[in-house]
Amino acid sequence: MASLDFNRTMLAFFGALVFYGVIVEFTSLVFMPWRTERPGYALPGSAPAAAVAAAPAAAKEPPLPELLAKADAGKGAADAKICATCHSFEKGGPAKIGPNLWGVVGRPVASAPGFAYSDAVKSLGGDWTYDKLNGWIGNPKGMAAGTKMAFAGEKEPQKRADILAYLQSLSDSPVPFPK
């Protein structure tokens, strides 16, 4: 009779272990934690570098003058809030991580006082035109491969046009939009 009690006790013990294992596996499947490929948080308006590289250059984008005709500087100011983490927009404002953007339209490239530009940006040359700024806002690393700018780019053409309209308003003598 003692061996029968021992067998029942062992059966109950191993049954409890199996039941515990089934419960653990079931809850692991139901409440599986979600893990990202890379730790961290995505910034609004940014995209992974692989997605930027894979995106077609300008897939059936309306011409810039057409986009600028519909541009809203108020929306551009809201869209440019992400830029304010690295740039200042005030007249005579300081250079932050990036240069001050007051009067950037029509200004020579890499010419903001008090900011150390990368060689990649210096090599662009010329002035910041609306076309050049549109390309820069869309894909900075595509225009200057060695730039220190970490922003991946704004892919929506109308948002870029709104930002350009906002940048136009940041000047004592605004440069007119191209026709």
TrEMBL record:
Q: Which domain of life is it from?
A: Bacteria
Residue ranges annotated for the Cytochrome c domain, each copy included: 69-171
- Write down the PROSITE patterns for this protein, in alphabetical order: CYTC
**SUPFAM superfamilies reported in the protein's UniProt record:** Cytochrome c
Q: Where are the transmembrane segments?
A: 12-32
User: Which InterPro entries does this entry report, sorted A to Z?
Assistant: Cyt_c-like_dom (IPR009056), Cyt_c-like_dom_sf (IPR036909), Cyt_c_1A/1B (IPR002327)
**What keywords would UniProt list here?**
Electron transport, Heme, Iron, Membrane, Metal-binding, Transmembrane, Transmembrane helix, Transport
Q: Which GO terms describe its molecular function?
A: electron transfer activity; heme binding; metal ion binding
Spell out the protein name for this chain.
Cytochrome c
